[in-house]
Amino acid sequence: MTRYTDAVNDALERLDDLGYERGPEGFVTHGPMCAETLATLGYGDRIPAWVRAYRNGIAHHAPPEPRLAIDANDATDWRSVLGDFDRAGDWEQLFRRELAAEPWRDVLVRWWPRLTPGLVAGLTHGVIRTAHAVRGLAAAPEPGPAQLTELARGLAYWAARYTPLPGHVRFRGQRGLARAMAALPRDELAESGFRGGRGDVEDTGPLGTYPGYQEALRALRPAETQLLLTEMTAEFAGVYLSHPEVFPIPLVHGITAPAAVRLVLPHLPAELHAPTLAVLWQVQVVMLLDFTRDRRGEDTATADADEYGAPGFAELTARAVEHGDDHVIKLAEACQREHALRPDPRYAAAAYAAQQRIPRYGADFGAATVQAVRRHGPRYGAKST
Length: 385
Prior knowledge:
By secondary structure, the protein is mainly alpha-helical. It has helices at 4-14, 31-40, 47-55, 75-80, 88-101, 104-115, 125-139, 145-160, 177-182, 213-217, 225-242, 253-264, 273-291, 301-306, 313-323, 326-341, 345-357, 367-376, and strands spanning 21-22, 27-28. The chain has 18 helices and two strands. It is globular, with a radius of gyration of 19 Å. Residues 380-385 have low confidence and may be disordered.
């Protein structure tokens, strides 16, 4: 069996020349994240074939070229280009410089609170890619150049697609997460203009007027960090399971984003935990309001999950690898990890449902998913015009 770190480094070298996005719609590049997940699941020997197929699928954009150096010591300078995707190459160079000069944890701790308000960037893929890079670095005896570059790219994508959401979460309410989710009046939401966090090309201001949005930001009572993360992933697994009528990819990130953040929190000071969870809740509120139209099935999701017939996680992850889709693979691993911390039948059922709802990667390796996104329109991942 290929060792984890060797498999990750090999994958990153094979994927090194790909840009941050792919296809005319600007889908997020998932190769490094999914390859690291395959290594985590013990399928490192499958990575070369998976990468070959992935590269032969949807064409990737070229890596961004640096244009003008960003001054990390000048807050006015770097803040002015947050969310500017034309400066993605400059962001990558900034993080490469810093990671060459300082321990990676120091760079992570400095930039995490600066980027957290824009955590929805790229439908949370900035923070998710960063988390996969952090897991790889934390497992390595010594940080390798390919892994440091991958962290630079995760942070750079997050910064270049940085998208703040309106309002501020205050953990001063009386509701637990499930009750707060149930209180959202989703049936009143008109058609949304939200485009998934595309940086300064997207106006998220109207989100603040969604019925129930501002109330939800004030609804949660204080909770211990790890418990709240578990509630976020478990409740959203139930949401995913309960909504087969919704296009099956966006809601996945309501599970994988908090699961990814859990990987990073041990490397951050405790005072950064609550602000991070506050923005995660903000993101989940937007997803619920924007991608669902009612609460059908959510109240009975746990009981329904028991009847869903999902296999155990060893079989689920094996099926995910055979399925091939990057979201399916990453979701199976995240659900397995979350279930190990606090067992809940919704995790396996959600992972199993994704394998049935998301098209398998065949010879076209992703073309079926692209066509499905195009049918559903730009709010499900395609570029806005």
